[in-house]
Amino acid sequence: MEQKNKYIRLAADLQTDSIVDGPGLRAVLWTQGCHHQCKGCQNPQTWDFNGGGLVPIEAVKEAIDELEYHTGLTLSGGDPMYQVEACLEIIKYARNKGLNIWVYTGFTWEEIIEMSKKKKVYMEFLKYVDVLVDGRFILEERDLSLLFRGSRNQRLIDVPKTLEKKEIILLDEKKYNEEELFKKEPMFI
Ligand code: SF4
């Protein structure tokens, strides 16, 4: 158990140059392991729960310490929800450093809420997430014009508002219009 909480299984080193996995310049943590098997998944190499490599959580924190000029940290995969304890420790740390947190998961919001009834850590995890991009990738619903997501069934959920109102509140996508963002926060290009 101790061991489990000290390591996270990752598909790759922390990526530090993403501008497509949420707004601004972002670091992306690619978790390893996924059971959803979405047809058309772009990262099938991340499905194997024995693939990738075990990385000490402390090493991930050190990599986060090295970030400069970053808007946020995105968790993707794979599916971060399969390693929720380790991911929680990492996003708590990143939040304290001022990074906003986006999470991509194949589970829907409703499924995670159900899971949280049996395992409280899922709700604890959600408290540190700014935006949850939820749901499996559905090839038939693919739409390249969507902001920060691949298929129409997936939602950009504003997690703090959703938790507060106890109903799903979607992200105001207009806020993420690049021109508007540039005007407000010129460093996030
Ligand atoms: S949830 Fe994501 S990583 Fe998992 S199969 Fe679906 S698209 Fe691939």
Describe the structure.
With 189 residues, the protein is an alpha/beta fold. It has a single domain, classed as Aldolase class I (TIM Barrel, Alpha-Beta Barrel). Helix content is 30%, strand content 19%. The chain is built from 7 helices and 8 strands, in the order αββββαβαβααββαα. The protein has helices at residues 2-6, 57-65, 84-96, 109-118, 121-126, 159-165, 178-184, and strands at residues 7-10, 15-18, 26-30, 53-56, 72-76, 100-104, 131-134, 155-158. Strands 2-3-5-6-7-8 form a 6-stranded mixed beta sheet. β5 (72-76), α3 and β6 (100-104) form a beta-alpha-beta unit. α2 (57-65) runs parallel beside α3. It starts with a helix and ends in a 5-residue tail after the last helix. The model has no long low-confidence stretch (mean pLDDT 92). Bound molecules: iron/sulfur cluster.
